[in-house]
Amino acid sequence: MVDQVMLLRSTESLCPICLRRIPAKVVGESDDNVYMEKSCPAHGSFRVLVWKGIKSWVLWDKLNDWEPERFEGEENATEVSMGCPFDCGLCPQHLRKACIIVAEVTNRCNLTCPVCFASANERYVYDASIDAVENMLKTVLRYECKNTVPTVQISGGEPTIRDDLPEIVDTAKKLGIEHIMVNTNGIRIAKDKKFLRCLKESGVNVIYLQFDGVTDDVYLKLRGINLMDVKVKAIKNCAELGIGVVLVPTVVKDINFHQIGDMITFAKRWVPTVRGVHFQPISYFGRYPYQPNNDSRITIPDMLNAIEKQTNEEIRASNFVPINMGRGCEAHCSFTNVSILTEGRSLLPITDFPSENDILKNGSGRDVASGPKHARKEIRNYWKSVGESACTCSCKFYTGDFGELAECLQEYYLSISGMIFQDVWNIDTKRCKKCCIHLVTPDGRLVPFCTFNITNVEGKTLYRDQVYKRYITLNESSTGKC
């Protein structure tokens, strides 16, 4: 608790009305919450909740001292002209190379979700040709890669609307993209197993499945239709074909926040097919540009405390670290935990947030209490308590040999993570410059995901519409064959 306002960070943000860049401050206040405060000369002042708990904000912020794994492409695609966030491409001000590239191949969809960040099915139709997709992927290889190729997530709209999606995946594989995810609502892969098999044969590694809860009332509110049976069928089909799945819930207070623990329990039942749950608290952009009140905001501490409480402390808040901890990503954007699924079907966390002493002692805390040594220690401690007996889980490995055990546990794990996407209300240019999720555009640029999707209160976008309206196509189905 503080008796007066504590300045934690000076940065820049945007006016939610006119999208002008304006000065902003991140401050801790007497209620122990952290807010962004900013003021537009034309439209007044704004105050937005960004974190709960000043001490934990400061502790997570210490992880921002680490040197980023810098953008390492051949060259920058754009020059600095107007300054962040108006020159994305990436420009020389960007500090972080990509961990995931999003490639949107259509803006058509078979749903009209009230919370769609892409505003799919509205205003115009965009379908990238195979040649256009190939050029987008070549952009990724040109600007992002010297030694490593990031994961590519094929997205939309709803990409499975395209019959030629397997051809798109095959094109990516032939270019050298090793890890490919398909972002989908699951409707087509639930009813069309042949199409799903084609996706696997073309090289899809993971299905990134929209999954908002375990009851149909949640889907009615967030998606406008009952979808629970569809989700289960999609996962079942993936299990039968040996395709990994990550469940991706959009989390909204008063709709599905109370089902966070239930979704983790559901995921456990489907390991090893389900490899993770990636929570995405609602952000106010796209089809959902409304002005939020601070009570509706979901912060990282909200998520971690809910996970701890709703799993009955099977996973604790202290078991989470920022995604890509120690690699220069903005620490306040995300959280992640990896847990082993034991033979008793409970989760054994192998990640822990480093202590303040460890962070100070190491200058960064990188690989402290969350790296391979810590994981091996936790695994050994667990199996030591079990004893040298035959493993009773379906993997059938002998528990006495650590090498065999490690091989077994490559399958029986669950990652629980989350990303707090920025919107026009809380956008922080210091966060933008360290973004590692980049969207590749058909005009040969790479734009941080949050920046690309920024929408003002009237629905005007910063990048999305301006980019895709130049590539409007006819509203026709793709004709590619499997």
How is this structure best described in words?
This protein is α/β, with parallel strands linked by helices and 482 residues long. The chain folds into 2 domains: 59 residues; 329 residues, Aldolase class I (TIM Barrel). The protein is 28% helix and 20% strand. The protein is built from 15 helices and 16 strands. Strands 5, 6, 7, 8, 9, 10, 11, 12, 13, 14, 15 and 16 form a 12-stranded mixed β-sheet that branches. Helix 3 packs parallel to helix 5. The protein is globular and about 60 Å long. The N and C termini lie far apart (60 Å). The C terminus is likely disordered.
Structural class: alpha/beta
Question: What gyration radius follows from the Cα positions, in whole Å?
Answer: 22 Å
CATH superfamily grouping of the largest domain:
Aldolase class I
Strand content: 15-25%
| CATH level 3 topology of the largest domain | TIM Barrel
Largest sheet: 12 strands, mixed
In DSSP terms, counting alpha (H) and pi (I) runs of 4 or more, how many helices? 15
Reading off the top of the CATH hierarchy, the class of the largest domain is best stated as Alpha Beta
Q: Return residue spans where pLDDT drops below 50 for at least 5 consecutive residues.
A: 364-376, 378-401, 475-482
3D shape: globular
Helix content: 25-40%
What number of domains?
Answer: 2
Number of strands: 16
